[in-house]
Amino acid sequence: MPAAFELTNVSVERSGKALLDDVTWTVAEGERWVVLGPNGAGKTTLLQVIGATMHPTRGTVRILGEKLGEVVVSELRTRIGHTSTKVADRIPPAESVQDAVLSAAHAVSGRWQEEYDEEDLARAQQMMGEWGVSALAGRTFGTLSEGERKRVLIARALMTDPELLLLDEPGAGLDLGAREDLLASLEVLAHADDSPVLVMVSHHVEEIPVGFTHVLLMRDGKVVAQGPLDTTLTADNLGTTFGQRIQLDREGGRFAARRAAYGRRANRSPETGETA
Ligand SMILES: Nc1ncnc2c1ncn2[C@@H]1O[C@H](COP(=O)(O)OP(=O)(O)OP(=O)(O)O)[C@@H](O)[C@H]1O
């Protein structure tokens, strides 16, 4: 499989602080990754580098066959869908949901005088349908609940049929039902053959949709571990990432984690549930 993106010895420094510290990471087409780590680990910074909205201080970044520093980033960004609170903040509260999705076709956050054709409108309506927000098409973005907003942002991110989709904490702020609904939709996306490469940032293993294939664990700007979910998402690796002894359980492809009880062995087999 060709690489969707490739980071080699990437560091990002700001105000003398290493936000990313020597990160090397390759993601191939067809893979679905989750990036986990505590607050301040550098997850959002990492997504900004992959989304071509931040340049590294050191190292090499290749995204969708293009090398950062040698490519017109505005063109590269049209091939990448990105959802985050920053993207949400750029959408005017008075923008209709339909225009919030449609305007992605011109990579603008507020519809103004751009021209949209029938194809654009059909695509926006299809995306709103697939993400369950068609009934909200006429509502203003500023009046949406957090769960509705998250779905509209994903519909918008998929509007341009991107090759790479970056989801920064899509489950944050959602109630149990809204989270489970979103996970079910992401599970469908993860299993679809024509889906883009997916990279999702989260704080919680409970938010990993079934169908995701790989995990990257971060702490203090560094990679703690990376690789296939089955072998890399272990209690030991989570413990190192979050600085605690962790008990990890897995059932039906979903994960659950909590602090390990004192004296208990933290490593529980994800397959059998038995402690090792
Ligand atoms: N411009 C900057 N100057 C200095 N420090 C910064 C700058 N931008 C971010 N940071 C710091 O870099 C660290 C990594 O930030 P980042 O937002 O990438 O972490 P994160 O893992 O996404 O955190 P969270 O889970 O809380 O969203 C944080 O400690 C943050 O305060």
Would you tell me which CATH topology of the largest domain applies? Rossmann fold
Strand elements, count: 12
Order of strands across the main sheet: 6-7-8-3-9-10
- Largest sheet geometry: 6 strands, mixed
Global outline: globular
Query: Mean pLDDT, nearest integer?
Result: 91
- Rounded to an integer in angstroms, the radius of gyration calculated over CA atoms is 19 Å
Distinct compounds present: adenosine-5'-triphosphate
SSE order: EEEHEEHEHHHHEHEEEHHEE
Distance between the termini: 35 Å
Structural class: alpha/beta
**Beta-sheet strand percentage?**
25-35%
List keywords for this structure.
276 residues; alpha/beta; Rossmann fold; 2 domains; six-stranded mixed beta sheet; four-stranded antiparallel beta sheet; 12 strands; 29% helix
Describe the structure.
It comes from Aeromicrobium chenweiae. Pfam families: ABC_tran. Keywords: ATP-binding, Nucleotide-binding. This is Iron ABC transporter ATP-binding protein. GO terms for molecular function: ATP binding; ATP hydrolysis activity. By secondary structure, the protein is of the alpha/beta class. It folds into 2 domains: 1-79 and 164-226, Rossmann fold (3-Layer(aba) Sandwich); 87-161, no CATH class. The chain has 9 helices and 12 strands. It has helices at 43-50, 73-77, 85-90, 97-102, 118-130, 146-158, 176-191, 229-232, 235-242, and strands at 3-14, 17-28, 32-36, 58-63, 66-67, 80-83, 164-168, 197-202, 214-219, 222-228, 246-251, 254-259. The strands form 3 sheets. It has a 6-stranded mixed sheet, sandwiched between helices. A hairpin with a 2-residue loop joins strand 9 and strand 10 (222-228). Helix 5 (118-130) crosses helix 6. It is globular.
